[in-house]
Design a protein that fits this description.
single chain; alpha/beta; 13 strands
Length: about 350
């Protein structure tokens, strides 16, 4: 197979930051995807319906024309989020979820939740009003090994949320382990998960190849090869509760290569081609359209996109760097060859 045409895909987990950084990156997503779930971890965070609508307007203003790309907004949950905040968000046609960041788990999560028990009224309101919970699933206690944070979060927190709020729809974001796959499979159809291209393509060795590789550092960190293989199987075998979410996160080269390099991988530049590269490794594109274009829309209760996108088997090289305000941006797989290229977008 040398050409693949499928329904325009969606990115169900995306970081755009804010102006002027957003203006440098939003076009990469808009030329490949019909929609994207926009993460709310700005500084300050997107806490309210009004914050989300204002952020949406800034995104729309930054998208290069012509484009039909639609940003799907989310709220940032804090210890002080109220049931009223959730009701107002659910009344908006533009807000499609609320994001749970354990405090200190990742970039701009300092305002996140310090005690999940405080959120029971919020989860109850989300369940009542049909607002989807998006979860950064890592335990942050200092005694928890960084490679165990996802499993510990499942055991100590996520299983309890799932049990206590059975009608709440949950997306377990950017999963990295077989444990997360098994959890999604073991519960009901109200639980789904996104998988990133970088977790499909690298294991934890990539962070240390020939020295520290800061541009392969993300949170949650990549895990052992066995976990990567399990993710690849879950993505490619047609299971409806797994779908694409890049977790693409732009950070300047200076911020990544500093004494305390920040977490995040920028994959938006070639996200669809990177996912195709992963499915090429799996040697099976049978369910590529489902993973990229159908499963997420169906879980979120949204119609499929009307357009299509075409990939062609063609070798090309990802740029070494991209323009970014005040510095440069190093894309995932910078300087490396990919074997699939977007050649059409209707």
């Amino acid at each position: 197979m040398n050409k693949l045409t499928f329904i325009t895909p969606d990115d169900w987990h995306l970081h755009l930051r804010d102006t002027p950084q957003m203006e440098a990156v939003v076009g990469d997503t808009a030329r490949q995807f019909g929609r994207a779930i926009i993460m709310p971890n700005l500084n300050p965070p997107v806490r309210t319906c009004a914050d989300a609508i204002a952020y949406r307007e800034r995104i729309l203003a930054a998208i290069p024309a012509p484009s039909s790309f639609t940003p799907l907004m989310t709220l940032y949950l804090t210890d002080n989020t109220s049931a009223t905040d959730i009701r107002e968000a659910s009344d908006s046609e533009h807000i499609h979820g609320a994001k749970l960041y354990p405090a200190g788990a990742t970039t701009n999560s300092e305002a996140g939740v310090t005690d999940l028990a405080k959120l029971d009224p919020v989860f109850e309101a989300m369940q009542k009003h049909g607002l989807i919970l998006q979860v950064h699933g890592e335990a942050t206690a200092p005694e928890v090994d960084v490679f165990d944070r996802e499993k510990v979060f499942i055991d100590q927190y996520l299983a309890k949320i799932r049990s206590n709020f059975p009608e709440l729809k949950i997306v377990f974001e950017h999963i990295t382990t077989r444990d997360a796959i098994d959890f999604v499979r073991s519960v009901d159809a109200n639980t789904a998960a996104t998988i990133t291209p970088h977790h499909l393509l690298i294991n934890r060795n990539a962070i240390f190849e020939g020295g520290i590789r800061p541009h392969h550092y993300c949170l949650p960190v990549a895990k052992r090869e066995g976990h990567r293989q399990a993710l690849l199987a879950a993505a490619s075998n047609g299971e409806a509760l797994f779908f694409a979410g890049t977790d693409s996160a732009p950070h300047s080269k200076d911020a990544k290569e500093s004494a305390c390099g920040c977490a995040g991988i920028y994959s938006a530049h070639s996200a669809v081609e990177l996912y195709a590269e992963a499915f090429e490794e799996a040697a099976d594109f049978t369910h590529f359209e489902s993973f990229m274009s159908r499963n997420g829309a169906e879980f979120y209760g949204l119609p499929l996109n009307q357009g299509s996108i075409t990939l062609e088997r063609r070798e090309w090289t990802i740029p070494d760097s991209l323009p970014f305000p005040g510095s440069s941006l190093i894309p995932f797989k910078a300087g490396q060859a990919l074997h699939w290229k977007i050649v059409g977008n209707d």
